[in-house]
Amino acid sequence: MTESAAQALSILRDPSRFEWYVIPLLLVVIYVYHNEIRLKNYSAVFAGLALWGCDWFNEIWNALVFHFTQYAPVWGTPGDSAFVLLIGLNIEISLMFLLLGVAATIILPGDRKLKILGIPNRLFFAVVFTTLAVIIEIILNAIGALTWEYSWWSARFPWLLWLFGYFYFFVVAYLVYDMKTIRAKAITVGAILGFDIACLVVFMGLLGWI
User: What's the pTM?
Assistant: First the structure.
């Protein structure tokens, strides 16, 4: 087991590490979602939840990688945190992803067919936000806040990180955002979150693997 994995494991779901700053962060998330609901911008709400659900899926398989290798997760969060939910996910990151999905829709043009530099605008912004997210993650890794232990998931080989770490998050969020009916959005987001919850019940609750 790597030192970083051991450190992250030692603080996994440790309630004694709670910090009060989590409460105002949570209130910011509640405010943002409440405001979008007040404005009847339900598309942004569902897009935000869809992106958040995609991140939970990634965090679950990342934790399973550690369980089966007993070496290291693909990425870990061994540093200071008010609460580490999974070996690669802390409460601060989770709240950030709840906001990111909503924030990423604000810039979208109303015309889905509009092109920017010859690229469909949804694809354009998915690429832009993904690239920015990867740059930020590289910085976080450089300062030790986020650890990588596998050569194929690193700044030297960023394509897997780019494609599976973030790009599909935005693609799914934008697909949900553009769905024609609230029912379709709700069913899709319900399926994503339902699958995540089922995995957590099995792998965390019943088997204790993550």
Answer: 0.94
